[in-house]
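Minutes, project check-in
Item: structure for the 397-residue chain
Input as provided by the requester:
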Amino acid sequence: MTSRTKLNPAQARRIALAAQGLHEARPAAATRRHLSRVLQRSHLLQIDSVNVLVRAHYMPLFSRIGAYDRNLLEKAAYHARKRETFEYWGHEASLIRLDLHPLFRWRMERARRGEGIYGGLARFGQEKRAFIEEVRREIATHGPMAAGELSGGHKGQGSWWGWSDGKRALEWLFWAGEVTTATRRGFERIYDLPERVLPSDILNAETPSADEAQRELLRHSIRALGIASERCLRDYFRLEPQDAKARIPELVEAGDLVPVTVEGWNGPVYLDPQAKIPRRVEARALVSPFDPIVWERTRTERLFDFRYRIEIYTPAEKREFGYYCLPFVLGEKIVARVDLKADRAAGNLIVHSIHPETSVAPEEIAPALGEELRLMAEWLNLGSITAPKEWRKQLEV
């Protein structure tokens, strides 16, 4: 883009939406190529166990490419010969682009030293190293297995110190990069050795220094975000503050980050030097609480004037909007929150509630939201939609 030092909030919004591909029209029929294009932009998909609607890693693809075949992602994630991702700690547990594996080896090495991981797991790694090696050897000998399949893996039985210790050993090995996810059974991880899961060209790729890997991760972050504060840049791949603070000035000096100001924003802001500012964005997407566009909540508030909190862990009587509210992006704004649930047994998409933003009238958003809900129901193989009475006619569901 042309050289700029000052942007207005609308320009910042359009940059952010375009960086995540939300400015593009969805394909008529999504293919593996479209899925790969999303991965090239976002670099990773966050994994989360909540399944009230659909697992978190499926949703960002739907938000961008529409009603795709979820088997496309299963193959990209776990196919023996055609995988495009590996599981590791990126932005929380994530499916990460396979070619980025070398950029996370410094994190694996730190984990082996007990750094950057949960304190209890670090202590376990120090105190139970022989036990952990036994677990690794069992997988090496017997092949892929879940935590509960370890010999004597049930609590209080056999030669192991209990299922919880076996699971902790596997988690330590996973952090350290000594085992990886071969596949999942339902949502349960099946662990195996990396050399039996990941392509040899990936495993044999040169390992960059920690400094260079962090710089490259930050380069990927700014491309995925378009525009970001220091906090947002490091949050994307969950870099430690001291690492980000050391690397960002180096990237500014190299021209990989362009310092800019945005009207009304405080603190340093950085722009992707290749960022595009569309003249307008005509987005229409329900996005999950685990979508990159809303990961960093302070950024969401600055970009969209939209204060967003997930209320899964809030007692029901204290929830303001609902258990699993999805922001609804329309045009260049987030215009509503929609609390959704997939009742798979009844084949029904339940719309518990719709909360438009105060600046938006229901009739302004209902036609587009109705289309989006019908598309989602089709994608999830749900034959009907139940919506609040006051919205049914407007939504045409």
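Outcome recorded: The first strand starts at residue 6 and ends at 7.
No further action items on this chain.
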